[in-house]
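Self-study notes.
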Amino acid sequence: MFFADRIRSIQQSDRVLEVGPGSSPHPRSDVLLERNFDSAEAAAQRGYTDATDLKKRVVFFDGGRFPFDDREFDYVICSHVLEHVDDVPGFVSELSRVAQRGYLEFPTVYYEYLYNFRVHQNFLHFDGKSIRWMNKGGTALDTFSPVQIFFRNALGAGFDELIASLPCCFFEGFEWNNTISVVEVSNIGELCPMDNAFVFPPNPLKPPPVPGKELVKELARRIKRRFAK
């Protein structure tokens, strides 16, 4: 989870469900819901991180309807799961059936174009009103597989500076209340922020210019011009 600070509306008395917590559930979660996978697929789904004893009640299911009553929970956390599911509208409907509020987080289309992880099935974007989605299978994304293999290997080797520097470009996270609108789209442009209008922060890997150095450079330029005459 990249934006845990955006989870702001959990009340002290709330009963909280977390769907697909992997190896690092949110500390406020009471019950964890996990999909039944064999050991190899489970490892792939959690990004090959080590499995841990979550020390909370874990419920397993085979997909489809969640094994809980309507509004059994007050809040549901679902981080980096929606990109994996077969039925996006059905899955989102289950989230709002079992809880009246929650938090969703998923990668953007830019992340998918760089890394194209095979366990990710969907492109996703929240436009402030609806979750827009497209199945990756209907695109030419695999055309760039040789490039994506390079980026995946670099990420696996720990070169994650770009992701760490610009998380808001590569991931989206938001709270919702009561219901969540879901819209399937066929145009990749509908999965990108309006006009691609990102406001990029200063690059933390590149320190700002030091005034003293700039002064030295300017003096050098003046001296060069003077002797060139």
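Second protein, same conventions, sequence then structure:
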Amino acid sequence: MNDRRTRLERARLYLVCDVIEGDFVARTLRGGVDIVQLRAKHRPDQEIITAGRRYARLCHEHEALMIVNDRPDLVEAIDADGVHIGQDDASVDEARRLVGRERLIGLSTHTPEQIDGSNDVDVDYIGVGPVHETPTKPGRPAVGLTLVRYASQHAKRPFFAIGGVQLANANELARAGGTRIAVVRALTEVQEPEAMARALRQALDAPRQSEAGLGAT
């Protein structure tokens, strides 16, 4: 297992965001974000590369992973750790050809069939959602905790629950088996992203700590 996959196994908190100037990304990394995905769907290639290189430097300084959305062709130029693709984006085989064996590939899944299918293709992790309705995925129905529970039982890769994930429901997700989460607005729309990242990590850890405490009695 290479270092990227070791870090992926440890990862719990995954930030998805567009190009954001200033120290926002650094603050989230200090708060405990393990993976940052640059999702810049409608920006020119050079802007994606410039922002991606900045994100990659910050992530690597914090021993975190940097992923680029839907652009396997830009991964090497950015020095990203991998790419995340959707069901309708580049094929897994094409993405693997472009990023190579050492880098990571993530795949979005929205149904039990897609989760099962991800077990048979060359991806390193999957996203499961949207758990709740979210404006970042307009028109896509929420899958709820049922799919999270399905993934916890059937997914053979690490999975991140995504879609409307906030501090208020992170603990509930963890109890349903969603012990890794991906967030957008939970960090991009708060005044103190570093403190919020820490709070999200604590919410994910609470069920495990509770179970450990019960086991010790």
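Instructor comment on the second fold: The chain has a mean pLDDT of 93.
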